[in-house]
Amino acid sequence: MEEIKGELITVNTLEQDFKKLGVQEGMTLLVHSSFKSLGKWVLGGPVSVILALEKAIGRSGTLVMPTHTGDLSDPAGWVNPPVPEAWWETIRAEMPPYDADLTPCNGMGVIPETFRKQKGVTRSSHPQVSFAAWGAHAQDIVSGHELDNGLGECSPIANIYHRQGWVLLLGVGHENNTSLHLAEHRASYSGKKAVECKAPITRDGMRQWIGYMDLDYESADFGRLGADFGRSGGEILRGKIAGADAMLMPQRQLVDYGVQWLEQHRS
After folding, report:
1. What is the pLDDT of residue 1?
2. Cβ pair 145, 155 in contact under 8 A
3. What's the rounded Cα separation, in Å, for the pair 78 and 84?
4. Residues with Cβ within 8 Å of residue 91, at least 6 apart in sequence
5. Alpha helix (H) ranges present in the chain?
6. Residue 186 to residue 215: CA distance in whole angstroms
7. Contact call for residues 85 and 92 (beta carbons, < 8 A)
C-alpha cells in the first residue's frame, strides 16, 4: 500500500495560517479561492476552510464570497459552449429564475458553493453577480444590490469599500479580484462602454425575463494592475495557507490605486 505523504490540513492549522498571514478578528473579508490549491489532505474539505475563516475573524467580523451565476444570461451571448439559435426563445422562456436560496454558483468553486448554503449566510439579490455574507455586518454588505451596474456603487463590493474591508486571494491571482471591477466603474478611460444584460428573476411573485444595463467588464489586465500595485508600495501581505499561495490586501487602497492605473493604462 502506498504511504500517504504530506501534512494533514485541519480547521486549526488553517486558522493559524490565516492569522499568520494577517487575518484579524473583526475584519470584513472578501475571499476569492481555489480549494484545490490548498493540498490533497484537507480534513472536512471546504467546510474546514469556511470554519477556519470564521474563527479567524470572529463573530465581530464579516466573511463575504462571490456567488456569481453568469449562466443566468441571454443564450445569444453564450460561447462556452454556444447553443443552437433554435433553442434561444425556449431558454429565455423557461430558464428557472434566480433564487438566492436555490441557484448554485457554478464555476465559482466549491468553497463559495458550500458557503452560500451555510445557516446564517445571506445572499444578495442580483441574478448574475450576487455575493454571500456571514457575520456581524452581513446584511449591510448584501442589501441594496441594484440590477444596473452590479459591481458598481450600489453593490456589495462598494459596501465592503465603505467598511474598509480586506481582500484575500487564496490560491488565485488578481485576475479573480472582483474589487477591481469597482475601479473600472470609477475610472475614466477610452473604450469604456455599457451593455445590456438579461436574466430571469422573480418579481411580484411572477417569473420575468428582464434587461438591465451594466459595464462591459474587462479583467485581462488585472494581473498587471495587481503586480504594479505591489511594486508601487501597495500593502499586500503574502504567505502560505496550507499549500496555497495567498495574498491579503486592504480593498480601499487597492481600488483607489486601480482607478488611477486604469485611467493611465487604458486611455
Report:
1. 53
2. yes
3. 10
4. 75, 83
5. 11-21, 46-57, 88-94, 110-115, 138-142, 156-162, 179-186, 222-231, 251-265
6. 11
7. no
User: How far is 248 from 254, CA to CA, in rounded Å?
Assistant: 11
Average pLDDT score over residue span 101-129: 97
Contacts of 143 by beta carbon, 8 Å cutoff, 6+ apart:
124
The set of cell numbers assigned to 20 is 499568520
Residue 199 pLDDT class (50, 70, 90 cuts) = very high
How many C-beta atoms surround the C-beta of residue 130 within 10 A? Answer: 24
- What dihedral do alpha carbons 171, 176, 182, 187 form, nearest 10°? 110
Sequence-separated (6 or more) residues with CB below 8 Å from residue 266: 187, 189, 190, 191, 192, 221
User: Does residue 3 surpass a pLDDT of 60?
Assistant: no
Which among 26, 34, 83, 91 has a CA at the least distance from the CA of 59?
Answer: 26
To 10 degrees, what angle do helices 179-186 and 222-231 make? 90
**Grid coordinates standing for 113?**
458553493
- For 205: left if phi > 0, alpha if psi spans -120 to 50, otherwise beta; the answer is left
Integer Cα distance of 223 and 174 in angstroms: 5
Question: Which one-letter amino acid corresponds to residue 2?
Answer: E
Q: Which of 99, 163, 166, 102 is nearest to 136 (CA)?
A: 163
Give the three-class secondary structure for 183.
Answer: helix
Task: Give the start-to-end residue ranges of the domains of the chain.
Answer: 11-265
Top-confidence residue, 22 or 1: 22
Tell if the pTM clears 0.85, that is, is over it.
yes
Which residues lie below 8 Å from residue 206, measured CB to CB, with a gap of 6+? Answer: none
Name the DSSP class of 85.
G
The counts of H helices and E strands in the chain are 9, 9
Contact 157, 64 (CB under 8 A): no
